[in-house]
């Protein structure tokens, strides 16, 4: 029995090692399995994806804005209904107040006289005294008006509850709209960062940065591709330009053709913008008669086709003393 026992004790480790080898779990393999995994960073969204997000969020914000407008109208109606119910209740209380006071006075007089005997005599109907008859009439008036008061108070309570419900709904919609706007701002920030263009004018040595993803900023980027092209009066591209012709050509390249080739008409379009609120792609105008214009880039720089003998170039806005206004055509 002893030899068999020793053989079993020596063969068990060998079987165990063989099993580990067969499973691929020997020392080096186990160490390899325990090595940390490499986590790949999520890919950044593309411009197309960000624009889709922005469109969806803007649609959501528009829906929420209309819900907010409806809640605001509903709240106004509920508040007016509550105020009307309160006025009715107050008017009825005022109507019954004299009868209440008279009843109180009669009750006090009866108490001071020492008992109910003063209410009985030969003066009133059914053997009641004049005082008792008067008290009965006043009590009837109070009871009649009280029914109206109860009805008015019930309506007032319902109006108050409706006002509270609508106010809560308005608050919820307003919070949702704020959240949507914050998301829009965040996506717009990502989109602007993704669509930032730096350019240097070899002719003037000035550098500018165009930011934004909207139509005006895209138009400005197209116009920048024409730096160095000569000024020709009345020209609107693709090789020569005058000041408004450069704008008309650049807008046509980004899907907005047909703009008027005249500074005065261009100035009447879009939205007016103050000098302190200029963004990439806004149009800037000069002279009391708007005889010249350019495209604002950012950082106080603008792009323009100046005059005969010159070329499309970047200039400092501060160099112009005849700034007349700006607008944004989206």
From TrEMBL:
Keyword check for Iron: no
Domain NlpC/P60 residue range list: 213-330
UniProt organism field: Actinomadura rubteroloni
EC number(s) on file: 3.4.-.-
Keyword field: Coiled coil, Hydrolase, Protease, Signal, Thiol protease
Recorded GO MF terms: cysteine-type peptidase activity
Protein name as it appears in the record: Murein DD-endopeptidase MepH
A Gene Ontology BP annotation from the UniProt entry: proteolysis
Signal peptide: 1-33
PANTHER family: MUREIN DD-ENDOPEPTIDASE MEPH-RELATED (PTHR47053)
